[in-house]
Amino acid sequence: MQFDDQNRVGKAKRRALVNQTEAKNRVELFRHLPQYDHGSQLPNLESKLFQLDSVHPAVFKVGLRYMAGDISGVNARCTEMLRALQEAIIDYSTPPEKVLIRELTAKISSYISFINECRPLSISMGNAIRFVKRRIAKLPLSHTDVEAKTALCSDIDRFINEKIIIADKVIVGHASTKVRDGDVLLTYGLSCVVEMILLSAHDVGKKFRVVVVDSRPKLESQALLNRLIAKGLSCTYTHINAVSYIMHEVTKVFLGASAVLSNGTVLSRVGTACIAMVAHAFSVPVLICCEAFKFHERVLLDSICCNEIGDPGALATVPGRMDINYLENWTNEENLQLLNLMYDVTPSDYVSVIVTDHGMVS
Protein backbone atom coordinates (compact mmCIF):
# COMPACT_ATOMS: atom_id res chain seq x y z
CA MET A 1 0.00 0.00 0.00
CA GLN A 2 1.16 3.52 -0.81
CA PHE A 3 1.26 5.26 2.56
CA ASP A 4 1.25 8.73 0.98
CA ASP A 5 -2.36 8.13 -0.11
CA GLN A 6 -4.27 9.64 2.82
CA ASN A 7 -7.65 8.08 1.95
CA ARG A 8 -6.29 4.54 1.79
CA VAL A 9 -4.17 5.03 4.91
CA GLY A 10 -7.24 6.32 6.78
CA LYS A 11 -9.26 3.22 5.86
CA ALA A 12 -6.36 0.94 6.82
CA LYS A 13 -6.00 2.64 10.21
CA ARG A 14 -9.68 2.15 10.99
CA ARG A 15 -9.33 -1.59 10.31
CA ALA A 16 -5.96 -1.95 12.03
CA LEU A 17 -5.60 -3.91 15.26
CA VAL A 18 -2.17 -2.43 16.06
CA ASN A 19 -2.13 1.25 16.95
CA GLN A 20 0.94 2.68 15.24
CA THR A 21 2.23 6.18 16.00
CA GLU A 22 3.62 7.94 12.96
CA ALA A 23 7.23 9.06 13.25
CA LYS A 24 7.73 12.76 13.90
CA ASN A 25 10.83 13.08 11.70
CA ARG A 26 9.67 11.28 8.56
CA VAL A 27 11.94 11.08 5.52
CA GLU A 28 10.12 12.79 2.66
CA LEU A 29 11.57 10.59 -0.11
CA PHE A 30 10.11 7.51 1.62
CA ARG A 31 6.68 8.83 2.61
CA HIS A 32 5.10 6.04 0.55
CA LEU A 33 6.46 3.53 3.11
CA PRO A 34 5.20 3.22 6.71
CA GLN A 35 7.35 5.23 9.11
CA TYR A 36 6.33 4.60 12.70
CA ASP A 37 7.62 5.65 16.08
CA HIS A 38 9.40 2.50 17.27
CA GLY A 39 9.30 1.50 20.92
CA SER A 40 5.67 2.28 21.76
CA GLN A 41 3.87 -0.40 19.72
CA LEU A 42 5.03 -3.51 21.57
CA PRO A 43 3.75 -2.59 25.08
CA ASN A 44 0.51 -1.35 23.50
CA LEU A 45 -0.01 -4.64 21.65
CA GLU A 46 0.93 -6.78 24.66
CA SER A 47 -1.78 -5.03 26.69
CA LYS A 48 -4.39 -6.26 24.17
CA LEU A 49 -3.49 -9.93 24.63
CA PHE A 50 -6.92 -10.89 26.03
CA GLN A 51 -8.93 -8.31 24.07
CA LEU A 52 -8.35 -9.36 20.46
CA ASP A 53 -10.76 -12.26 20.04
CA SER A 54 -10.41 -12.08 16.25
CA VAL A 55 -6.72 -13.08 16.36
CA HIS A 56 -5.70 -16.64 17.19
CA PRO A 57 -3.23 -16.82 20.15
CA ALA A 58 -0.55 -18.52 18.01
CA VAL A 59 -0.81 -15.77 15.38
CA PHE A 60 -0.78 -13.11 18.11
CA LYS A 61 2.37 -14.62 19.64
CA VAL A 62 4.18 -14.67 16.27
CA GLY A 63 3.15 -11.05 15.64
CA LEU A 64 4.59 -10.02 18.99
CA ARG A 65 7.87 -11.81 18.26
CA TYR A 66 8.09 -10.16 14.82
CA MET A 67 7.57 -6.75 16.36
CA ALA A 68 10.11 -7.40 19.12
CA GLY A 69 12.68 -8.61 16.57
CA ASP A 70 12.95 -12.05 18.18
CA ILE A 71 12.52 -13.78 14.80
CA SER A 72 14.91 -12.68 12.07
CA GLY A 73 15.79 -14.20 8.75
CA VAL A 74 13.34 -14.87 5.94
CA ASN A 75 13.26 -18.66 6.39
CA ALA A 76 12.67 -18.42 10.14
CA ARG A 77 9.95 -15.78 9.73
CA CYS A 78 8.21 -17.80 7.02
CA THR A 79 8.37 -21.05 9.00
CA GLU A 80 7.03 -19.46 12.20
CA MET A 81 4.18 -17.81 10.29
CA LEU A 82 3.17 -21.11 8.64
CA ARG A 83 3.32 -22.95 11.98
CA ALA A 84 1.07 -20.29 13.54
CA LEU A 85 -1.41 -20.57 10.64
CA GLN A 86 -1.34 -24.34 11.07
CA GLU A 87 -2.40 -24.02 14.72
CA ALA A 88 -5.11 -21.54 13.76
CA ILE A 89 -6.45 -23.93 11.09
CA ILE A 90 -6.54 -26.83 13.57
CA ASP A 91 -8.60 -24.76 16.04
CA TYR A 92 -10.90 -23.29 13.36
CA SER A 93 -14.55 -24.30 13.24
CA THR A 94 -16.82 -23.34 10.34
CA PRO A 95 -19.88 -21.27 11.36
CA PRO A 96 -23.29 -22.89 10.76
CA GLU A 97 -24.53 -22.77 7.16
CA LYS A 98 -21.16 -21.47 5.95
CA VAL A 99 -18.63 -23.00 3.53
CA LEU A 100 -15.18 -23.76 4.94
CA ILE A 101 -13.32 -22.70 1.78
CA ARG A 102 -14.68 -19.15 1.82
CA GLU A 103 -14.75 -18.59 5.56
CA LEU A 104 -11.28 -20.00 6.22
CA THR A 105 -9.73 -17.95 3.40
CA ALA A 106 -11.21 -14.77 4.90
CA LYS A 107 -9.96 -15.78 8.36
CA ILE A 108 -6.45 -16.43 7.06
CA SER A 109 -6.47 -13.03 5.32
CA SER A 110 -7.35 -11.29 8.61
CA TYR A 111 -4.49 -13.11 10.37
CA ILE A 112 -2.07 -12.08 7.62
CA SER A 113 -3.20 -8.46 7.92
CA PHE A 114 -2.41 -8.57 11.62
CA ILE A 115 1.04 -10.08 11.01
CA ASN A 116 1.72 -7.45 8.35
CA GLU A 117 0.86 -4.70 10.83
CA CYS A 118 3.39 -6.13 13.28
CA ARG A 119 6.10 -6.24 10.61
CA PRO A 120 5.77 -5.96 6.82
CA LEU A 121 5.75 -9.32 5.08
CA SER A 122 8.73 -10.40 3.00
CA ILE A 123 8.21 -11.36 -0.65
CA SER A 124 8.79 -15.05 0.08
CA MET A 125 6.23 -14.96 2.91
CA GLY A 126 3.75 -13.68 0.33
CA ASN A 127 4.57 -16.71 -1.83
CA ALA A 128 3.91 -19.04 1.11
CA ILE A 129 0.59 -17.34 1.86
CA ARG A 130 -0.52 -17.73 -1.76
CA PHE A 131 0.37 -21.43 -1.53
CA VAL A 132 -1.85 -21.87 1.55
CA LYS A 133 -4.77 -20.02 -0.05
CA ARG A 134 -4.46 -22.08 -3.24
CA ARG A 135 -4.57 -25.30 -1.22
CA ILE A 136 -7.70 -24.06 0.58
CA ALA A 137 -9.36 -23.19 -2.74
CA LYS A 138 -8.62 -26.69 -4.10
CA LEU A 139 -10.16 -28.54 -1.15
CA PRO A 140 -12.98 -30.85 -2.32
CA LEU A 141 -16.42 -29.74 -1.14
CA SER A 142 -17.09 -33.33 -0.13
CA HIS A 143 -14.44 -33.13 2.63
CA THR A 144 -15.55 -32.80 6.22
CA ASP A 145 -13.98 -30.06 8.32
CA VAL A 146 -11.67 -32.56 9.99
CA GLU A 147 -10.51 -34.00 6.66
CA ALA A 148 -10.00 -30.53 5.15
CA LYS A 149 -7.96 -29.29 8.12
CA THR A 150 -5.86 -32.47 8.16
CA ALA A 151 -5.11 -32.07 4.45
CA LEU A 152 -4.17 -28.39 4.88
CA CYS A 153 -1.85 -29.07 7.80
CA SER A 154 -0.20 -31.85 5.80
CA ASP A 155 0.29 -29.45 2.86
CA ILE A 156 1.90 -26.83 5.13
CA ASP A 157 4.24 -29.46 6.61
CA ARG A 158 5.19 -30.53 3.09
CA PHE A 159 5.85 -26.92 2.04
CA ILE A 160 8.17 -26.29 5.02
CA ASN A 161 9.97 -29.59 4.51
CA GLU A 162 10.39 -29.44 0.73
CA LYS A 163 10.75 -25.70 0.06
CA ILE A 164 12.91 -24.77 3.06
CA ILE A 165 14.54 -27.71 4.88
CA ILE A 166 15.31 -30.02 1.95
CA ALA A 167 15.91 -27.05 -0.37
CA ASP A 168 18.66 -25.77 1.94
CA LYS A 169 20.32 -29.20 1.97
CA VAL A 170 20.28 -29.33 -1.84
CA ILE A 171 21.75 -25.81 -2.07
CA VAL A 172 24.50 -26.81 0.36
CA GLY A 173 25.31 -29.80 -1.85
CA HIS A 174 25.58 -27.60 -4.96
CA ALA A 175 27.48 -24.70 -3.38
CA SER A 176 29.94 -26.85 -1.43
CA THR A 177 31.43 -28.06 -4.71
CA LYS A 178 32.57 -24.49 -5.39
CA VAL A 179 34.71 -24.36 -2.24
CA ARG A 180 38.31 -25.44 -2.78
CA ASP A 181 41.40 -25.74 -0.60
CA GLY A 182 43.10 -22.40 -0.09
CA ASP A 183 39.97 -20.34 -0.80
CA VAL A 184 39.22 -17.13 1.06
CA LEU A 185 35.43 -16.90 1.23
CA LEU A 186 33.65 -13.67 2.09
CA THR A 187 30.13 -13.52 3.49
CA TYR A 188 27.97 -10.71 4.78
CA GLY A 189 25.13 -10.65 7.26
CA LEU A 190 23.55 -13.74 8.77
CA SER A 191 22.32 -16.25 6.21
CA CYS A 192 21.44 -19.70 7.57
CA VAL A 193 22.08 -21.43 4.22
CA VAL A 194 25.50 -19.76 3.79
CA GLU A 195 26.41 -20.86 7.31
CA MET A 196 25.41 -24.43 6.42
CA ILE A 197 27.57 -24.29 3.27
CA LEU A 198 30.64 -23.13 5.19
CA LEU A 199 30.20 -25.75 7.92
CA SER A 200 29.58 -28.52 5.37
CA ALA A 201 32.75 -27.66 3.43
CA HIS A 202 34.73 -27.59 6.69
CA ASP A 203 33.30 -30.95 7.81
CA VAL A 204 34.54 -32.71 4.67
CA GLY A 205 38.07 -31.47 5.35
CA LYS A 206 38.44 -28.51 2.99
CA LYS A 207 40.96 -25.90 4.11
CA PHE A 208 39.79 -22.33 3.64
CA ARG A 209 39.42 -19.03 5.47
CA VAL A 210 36.23 -17.02 5.96
CA VAL A 211 35.98 -13.22 5.94
CA VAL A 212 32.87 -12.22 7.88
CA VAL A 213 31.69 -8.70 7.01
CA ASP A 214 29.32 -6.89 9.34
CA SER A 215 27.50 -3.57 9.56
CA ARG A 216 25.59 -1.49 12.05
CA PRO A 217 23.07 -1.20 13.55
CA LYS A 218 22.27 -4.91 14.01
CA LEU A 219 25.81 -6.34 13.84
CA GLU A 220 24.14 -9.70 13.16
CA SER A 221 27.29 -11.22 11.62
CA GLN A 222 28.79 -11.49 15.11
CA ALA A 223 26.50 -14.45 15.83
CA LEU A 224 27.70 -16.15 12.64
CA LEU A 225 31.33 -15.42 13.54
CA ASN A 226 30.95 -16.97 16.99
CA ARG A 227 29.40 -20.15 15.59
CA LEU A 228 32.05 -20.54 12.88
CA ILE A 229 34.91 -20.06 15.34
CA ALA A 230 33.30 -22.57 17.73
CA LYS A 231 33.39 -25.15 14.90
CA GLY A 232 37.10 -24.50 14.30
CA LEU A 233 36.95 -22.38 11.12
CA SER A 234 39.62 -19.74 10.48
CA CYS A 235 37.85 -16.37 10.34
CA THR A 236 38.53 -12.68 9.82
CA TYR A 237 35.99 -10.14 11.03
CA THR A 238 35.60 -6.68 9.52
CA HIS A 239 33.01 -3.99 8.94
CA ILE A 240 31.51 -3.08 5.60
CA ASN A 241 33.43 0.20 5.36
CA ALA A 242 36.67 -1.82 5.07
CA VAL A 243 35.46 -4.31 2.46
CA SER A 244 37.46 -2.71 -0.39
CA TYR A 245 40.67 -3.16 1.61
CA ILE A 246 40.20 -6.89 2.15
CA MET A 247 38.54 -7.85 -1.15
CA HIS A 248 41.90 -8.35 -2.90
CA GLU A 249 42.44 -11.42 -0.66
CA VAL A 250 39.01 -12.93 -1.40
CA THR A 251 38.48 -15.69 -3.99
CA LYS A 252 34.68 -16.09 -3.75
CA VAL A 253 31.73 -14.26 -2.17
CA PHE A 254 28.77 -16.21 -0.74
CA LEU A 255 25.63 -14.19 0.02
CA GLY A 256 22.07 -14.98 1.05
CA ALA A 257 18.95 -13.38 -0.43
CA SER A 258 15.48 -12.34 0.67
CA ALA A 259 14.14 -12.68 -2.87
CA VAL A 260 15.22 -13.03 -6.49
CA LEU A 261 13.05 -11.07 -8.92
CA SER A 262 12.17 -11.85 -12.53
CA ASN A 263 14.77 -9.47 -14.00
CA GLY A 264 17.56 -11.19 -12.06
CA THR A 265 17.66 -8.51 -9.39
CA VAL A 266 18.50 -9.76 -5.89
CA LEU A 267 16.69 -8.27 -2.90
CA SER A 268 18.65 -8.77 0.32
CA ARG A 269 19.72 -7.08 3.56
CA VAL A 270 21.01 -3.57 3.04
CA GLY A 271 24.71 -3.58 2.20
CA THR A 272 24.56 -6.65 -0.05
CA ALA A 273 24.64 -4.52 -3.21
CA CYS A 274 27.74 -2.72 -1.93
CA ILE A 275 29.52 -6.04 -1.30
CA ALA A 276 28.56 -7.39 -4.74
CA MET A 277 29.70 -4.24 -6.56
CA VAL A 278 33.07 -4.17 -4.80
CA ALA A 279 33.54 -7.88 -5.60
CA HIS A 280 32.67 -7.19 -9.24
CA ALA A 281 35.28 -4.42 -9.37
CA PHE A 282 37.91 -6.90 -8.08
CA SER A 283 36.70 -9.65 -10.50
CA VAL A 284 35.67 -11.87 -7.58
CA PRO A 285 32.72 -14.22 -8.35
CA VAL A 286 29.54 -13.58 -6.34
CA LEU A 287 27.36 -16.60 -5.53
CA ILE A 288 23.82 -15.89 -4.29
CA CYS A 289 22.31 -18.78 -2.32
CA CYS A 290 18.51 -18.65 -2.53
CA GLU A 291 15.68 -21.17 -2.25
CA ALA A 292 13.30 -21.36 -5.22
CA PHE A 293 10.26 -20.34 -3.15
CA LYS A 294 11.85 -16.88 -2.80
CA PHE A 295 11.64 -16.24 -6.54
CA HIS A 296 9.02 -13.71 -7.59
CA GLU A 297 7.65 -12.28 -10.83
CA ARG A 298 7.96 -8.70 -9.56
CA VAL A 299 10.54 -6.34 -11.09
CA LEU A 300 12.47 -3.77 -9.05
CA LEU A 301 14.97 -1.27 -10.41
CA ASP A 302 15.78 0.40 -7.10
CA SER A 303 15.32 -0.04 -3.35
CA ILE A 304 13.15 3.08 -2.95
CA CYS A 305 9.70 2.06 -4.21
CA CYS A 306 9.53 -1.18 -2.18
CA ASN A 307 11.40 -1.54 1.10
CA GLU A 308 11.08 -1.75 4.87
CA ILE A 309 12.21 0.98 7.24
CA GLY A 310 13.73 -0.10 10.54
CA ASP A 311 14.06 1.82 13.78
CA PRO A 312 15.95 5.05 12.93
CA GLY A 313 16.89 5.43 16.60
CA ALA A 314 19.14 2.38 16.27
CA LEU A 315 21.49 4.45 14.11
CA ALA A 316 21.92 7.07 16.84
CA THR A 317 23.59 4.71 19.31
CA VAL A 318 26.73 2.57 19.15
CA PRO A 319 26.55 -0.71 21.12
CA GLY A 320 29.03 -0.75 24.00
CA ARG A 321 29.94 2.93 23.59
CA MET A 322 27.91 5.02 26.02
CA ASP A 323 30.23 7.98 25.43
CA ILE A 324 29.06 8.31 21.81
CA ASN A 325 25.77 10.14 22.35
CA TYR A 326 25.95 13.02 19.89
CA LEU A 327 22.50 12.19 18.46
CA GLU A 328 20.84 11.49 21.78
CA ASN A 329 17.93 13.93 21.21
CA TRP A 330 17.87 13.80 17.43
CA THR A 331 14.06 13.59 17.26
CA ASN A 332 13.86 17.16 18.59
CA GLU A 333 15.80 18.44 15.58
CA GLU A 334 13.16 19.44 13.06
CA ASN A 335 15.51 19.35 10.06
CA LEU A 336 17.18 16.01 10.89
CA GLN A 337 15.86 12.66 9.68
CA LEU A 338 17.60 9.29 10.10
CA LEU A 339 16.92 6.56 7.54
CA ASN A 340 17.40 2.90 8.46
CA LEU A 341 16.59 0.87 5.33
CA MET A 342 16.34 -2.88 5.78
CA TYR A 343 16.91 -4.06 2.19
CA ASP A 344 18.71 -3.09 -0.97
CA VAL A 345 18.63 -4.24 -4.58
CA THR A 346 21.59 -5.86 -6.36
CA PRO A 347 21.44 -5.74 -10.19
CA SER A 348 22.07 -9.03 -11.99
CA ASP A 349 25.24 -7.55 -13.57
CA TYR A 350 27.03 -8.00 -10.24
CA VAL A 351 25.89 -11.60 -9.64
CA SER A 352 27.89 -14.51 -11.08
CA VAL A 353 25.67 -17.45 -10.07
CA ILE A 354 22.42 -17.98 -8.19
CA VAL A 355 22.53 -21.32 -6.37
CA THR A 356 19.01 -22.75 -5.94
CA ASP A 357 17.50 -26.09 -5.02
CA HIS A 358 16.82 -26.61 -8.73
CA GLY A 359 20.48 -26.12 -9.65
CA MET A 360 22.78 -23.22 -10.47
CA VAL A 361 21.55 -20.29 -12.58
CA SER A 362 24.33 -18.24 -14.18
From TrEMBL:
Highest taxon, organism lineage: Eukaryota
Coiled coil: none
Keyword set includes Protein biosynthesis: yes
Keyword line: Initiation factor, Protein biosynthesis
Family listed: Belongs to the eIF-2B alpha/beta/delta subunits family.
Listed transmembrane segments: none
Protein name per UniProt: Translation initiation factor eIF2B subunit delta
GO MF annotations, alphabetized: translation initiation factor activity
